[in-house]
Amino acid sequence: MRYPDGMTSGSSFYARRLAQPGAVLAPMAGYSDAPMRQLAAEQGALWTVSEMISARGLVLGGESEKLTLGRPYPGETRRVVQLFGAEPDILAQAVTRAEAWFAPAALDLNMGCPVPKVRGRGGACLLQTPEVAYALVQAMRGATRLDVSAKIRLGWDTDRSVEIAQGLAAAGAALITVHGRTSAQRYTGEADWEAIARVAASVAVPVIGSGDVRSAEQARARLQAGVAAVMIGRGAVGNPWVFRALATGDGAAPGVRERARTALRHARLHAAFYGPDRSGLPSMRPLRKVLPQYLPEQPELRDTLVQVNTVEDVERALAPFLAPEPWAGEHEEAVAASAM
Ligand SMILES: Cc1cc2nc3c(=O)[nH]c(=O)nc-3n(C[C@H](O)[C@H](O)[C@H](O)COP(=O)(O)O)c2cc1C
Prior knowledge:
Layout: H1 13-17, E1 24-25, H2 34-42, E2 48-49, E3 53-54, H3 55-60, H4 64-67, E4 79-84, H5 88-102, E5 106-111, H6 116-119, H7 130-142, E6 147-153, H8 161-171, E7 175-179, H9 193-202, E8 207-210, H10 216-222, E9 229-232, H11 241-248, H12 256-274, H13 302-305, H14 311-318, H15 328-339
The structure holds flavin mononucleotide.
């Protein structure tokens, strides 16, 4: 069999992708949806990870999840589906369903989400009872031939990351991502990359480091922690070009026109993927927090972009920065000639 990325069968998805340079798009609930993943993948992200999906919801919740969180965009190939849950049999069934519905490249277990509604059912809660997580990984592995990985924080309120990573590797995790904060820290303080380095040195499986990487330069510096690659989350919102810089070495900063065009493309991908809402039109509301981040140097656009409802609103707001109309050059020439 030939794989789209030119590798042969037999090696795991993660091993194949890690043979290339580049960085990984982080799972981010409310952000790493199909349109964001598509833009990151086009710019060379090694792989992308879906927003977390409840294993229970997937198994017991009918078909609703099929339509949004897990659904791939047409042609999506390098997308890992992240599941959260706490019951091995449910996780195993969720893996089977995710594989049938979502065509994932690999499956990942969420062990880092500190949001209360998730805690009782898994997420970072598993850092307090890691033996449950080991059983979950074993159950997931038993349900698929795809790679199974886990994404952890350093611990619940103290750093237990080496012990937990070793347990996960022994349970069969093909890769471990470490967000260098405890669950108690949530997103405060700075990610502890020394702790991430200790994990990378203590397990034989690849470790991906996550936390506070905002630029290609920072990503390159973080590789010194001995990680196989870095994951980028918040730093990739409105900035898919960070993946191009790391995949190809082309660190050229996009100009305002490319930024504006990509923001508009994001809006169009969003409309195409989600389709009309109850009002009969695709809603841009979920993008209100994202679009201004494409144009950090145009703060004057912010007020308009945080109020958009339709693709047309987005286009109108960005119009001054999109490509000039074909006759604009002629107009400029005419103005220049008349000034002579
Ligand atoms: C809004 C938001 C949503 C997130 N959702 C998830 C998630 O669904 N699953 C997960 O494993 N991590 C999630 N994370 C954590 C990120 O994947 C990442 O580990 C963390 O943000 C640190 O990386 P960063 O500084 O590059 O953003 C989320 C983070 C943010 C900010």
